[in-house]
Design goal:
This protein is mainly alpha-helical. Helices cover 90% and strands 0% of the residues. The protein is built from five helices and no strands. It is globular, with a radius of gyration of 16 Å.
Amino acid sequence: MVNNAYSQYKKSSIMTAPPEELVLMLYNGGMKFLKRAMIHLEDGNLEGCHVAVIRAQDIVIEFMSKVDTDYEVGKNLFSLYDYMYRRLIEANVQKDMKIIEEVYNMFKELKETWEEAIKIVRKNKK
């Protein structure tokens, strides 16, 4: 019952969130899955690590599918996501903690940049 209520709340949060918040949710999700991958790898749970890295890859693919490459900044962002995606494949094949940490830090930096951009836009709207 509690699990179902949480699922409904989570679904409602996603369905009603403004686009900029959805981006933050995706960055947070990527970080969460990569953190899980690191924990699984430390515990020797290679299957759990694999699944978590795949989930992070899915998030990167989602970002790649939404980037507007008509502009230079979009092209650069797409290239960054492509790099992250390729590194996650490498990390998953090699079960390499350093690569997982590298991409985790990239997610974190992109999230922090996005948070700053949201603050600036909101401040300028006032």
